[in-house]
Amino acid sequence: MKQVLILNITRMGDLVQMGPLLARLQEEWPGVAVDLVVDRRFAPVASMLKGLRNVVSFDFHELIDSSRAAVKDVVSLFQEVAGWARPLAEQKYDRLINLTFNRPSAFLASYIGAPDIRGGRSAWDGGIVIDNAWMAYFTDIHRFRRINRFNLVDVYALGGSRAGAFAPLQLTVTQEAQEWARGFLASEQETPAQWIAVQAGASDVMKAWRPRSFGSTLARVSERWRGGIVFIGAGSERETVAQAIQAYRSAGGRNSFLNATGQTSLEQLAGLLAECRLLLTNDTGPMHVAVAVQTPVIDLSVGHVDFQETGPYGPGHWVLQPELDCAPCGFEQVCAHNSCKDRFLPDHVAELILYALGGGPFPSGVSTFRIYESGVDEDQLGTFRLRAGREPASTAWYAAFWRRYWYESFTGLQSHVPMPDGPAPDAEDAIRRLAAMQPRLDALCKRAEDIVRTACRTPIATGVLASLQREQVLERECTVRMGMESLATAPVTTEFMRTLHNDNVQGIDRLARHHAKAYRRWQMQLTDIYRRLSGVHSMSWGKQLRIVAGTSALAV
User: Fold this and answer.
1) Is 322 helix (H, G, I), strand (E, B) or coil?
2) Any residues with CB less than 8 A from the CB of 495 and at least 6 apart, and which?
3) pLDDT of residue 12
4) Which pLDDT does position 60 carry in this prediction?
5) Which fold has domain 175-391?
6) d(Cα 307, Cα 13) in Å, to the nearest integer?
7) How far, in whole angstroms, is CA 348 from its chain's centroid?
8) What is the rounded CA–CA span in Å between residue 109 and residue 89?
9) Strands 278-282 and 257-259: what pairing?
10) What's residue 338's pLDDT?
11) Which of 157, 260, 408, 486 could form a disulfide with 20 if both were Cys (CB 3.0 to 4.6 A apart)?
12) Ordered DSSP codes for 447-505
């Protein structure tokens, strides 16, 4: 019997999003035994997942706190973790899937070990190395996230296993949790026949819509829908929920409501969401719980949240995204205006809620944000289809292009997702750029081979080697800068830079070979992209360059 160990330590939502991975592993290896390592706080969520043999918990947050505060010395901390993990190492897993992208989890993955490790593991020098193409892609997304079209759910499933049939998120709601939820909702004197849940808070205020906007929206819904509203959230979100309730009352909200903020266990939260017709929410862990208990979601995607990565997975959900050039913003960015939170108009959001509840037409006149409907695409992956608003033409075209490119590149399978219509909006500029980059790539590849030959000689001509490396760095910086300036080349340029530094090798000669291989792959990818963009499938680069000889070279 095959055995798999999954490390998924940091967030509740990440655990819920593992459902398709677990289904795909059973499809790949029928009867596979899958164990999960999880932080102790999230063990209750893991217990609701289907397809696990054992859930192994550890108080990783306490471990990190002890390390930072120097409560225990490094040797003691290592001995504590090593003693706990030793039985896992002795289990002799066939595959280890590390879904936590940090150095401690990489160390743990290497300590436990497996013939097939997917995700981060420790490099020989203590850094992190990532071998699996899908897992490595996930670390690259932040550099070109506006044209990424792979949900984290699918990255987990494809990286941890392989392509296969669509599988939804799934959590098992216990009878006890179901009974608690029904009793809680029945505590209202006149119990409404239907309920909607509202998550007004979030773990990060950057990704939360304004509380007063929640209140105003719900008041408008109450004018045309007679049901109950139940507010959910962690205890730390009580003040946020109180502000939403005050705004609801001030705007004349008519429907009865209950406040479950800080009153539910994770199992009870799942039971409560399963009893609701809909969840209106920021991008949060409870959003994924709602999806996994088959409750439709309306996701308000603001701040640094990109719903293409972490939005509600599978059919039946709705996402709102501000129509702003800066949306979504970067993870480390400090926003001076937060204007994305003012793009969602309560009237329009209320109309979408009523439409999702079957009580009104689809919103019209939407101009300050986009509405997407979730679904499943032709490759059996999660997708979002634009239903209202506009996307920049170049973003839409390249998003479709790279969606096909990476799927085919990483799986070796033909994608059934259609190619984007017509040529790229910037096709002429993209082709000129690719043609201008090619002589530089030729020179970089040639110099990389020279470095390999020099590094393999005994004794090493250190002066010659240093000179070649200086020349290589200067030329590479210019070429990378060119590559990052266009949607036609930025994704593979990002992959090249990550591959270059993902160098788990010892010795100057091996490092030189690793770099040379990275340069050759980058050149091959750019050649392939040129052919795809230009429609030329069997032409030498020399002839390609003659075709564009009449165009000016790009300035660097």
Assistant:
1) strand
2) 136, 137, 140, 522, 525
3) 85
4) 82
5) Rossmann fold (3.40.50)
6) 13
7) 27
8) 9
9) unpaired
10) 76
11) 157
12) HHHHHHHHHHSSS--HHHHHHHHHHHHHHHHHHHHHHHT-TTTHHHHHHHHHHHH----
Query: 297 near 108, Cβ under 8 Å?
Result: no
**Residue listed under structure tokens 């309560």:** 346
Question: Tokens 């010395």 map to which residue?
Answer: 73
Backbone phi, psi, residue 384, to 5°: -135, 130
CA nearest 306: which of 279, 273, 333?
Answer: 333
- 304 and 330 in contact (C-beta within 8 Å)? yes
Task: Write down the pLDDT at residue 539.
Answer: 42
Q: Which of 326, 325, 367 is nearest to 344 (CA)?
A: 367
State how far the Cα of 466 lies from the Cα of 229, in Å rounded to an integer: 68
Q: How far is CA 416 from the centre of its chain?
A: 22
What is the rounded distance in angstroms from the CA atom of residue 157 to the CA atom of residue 139? 15
Q: Are the beta carbons of 2 and 94 closer than 8 angstroms?
A: yes
Q: Return the pLDDT at 173.
A: 96
Question: For residue 159, which amino acid is it?
Answer: G
Position 69 scores a pLDDT of: 58
**How many CB atoms are closer than 10 A to CB 440?**
18
What pLDDT, in 10s, does the model give residues 447-491?
999 999 999 999 999 999 999 999 999 999 999 999 999 999 999
Distance CA 516, CA 266 (A): 50
CATH class of 3-131: alpha beta
Q: What are phi and psi of 503, to 5 degrees?
A: -110, 75
Q: pTM for the complete prediction?
A: 0.91
Q: How many Å apart are CA 463 and CA 299, to the nearest integer? A: 58
Is-contact 184 45, C-beta < 8 A? no
Per-residue pLDDT, 73: 66
DSSP 341: G
State how far the Cα of 149 lies from the Cα of 391, in Å rounded to an integer.
14
Q: DSSP characters for 109-141?
A: HHHH--SEEEEEEE-TTSSEEE-SHHHHHHHHG
Is the four-CA dihedral 73, 76, 77, 78 of positive or negative sign?
positive
Q: How many C-beta neighbours within 10 Å does residue 365 have?
A: 10
Angle at 300 between CA 153 and CA 193, to 5 degrees: 95
pLDDT at 67: 61
Residue 541, token pair as written in the block? 């680069």
H/E element holding 384? strand 382-388
Ranges under pLDDT 70 in the chain: 64-74, 189, 331-334, 336, 536-556
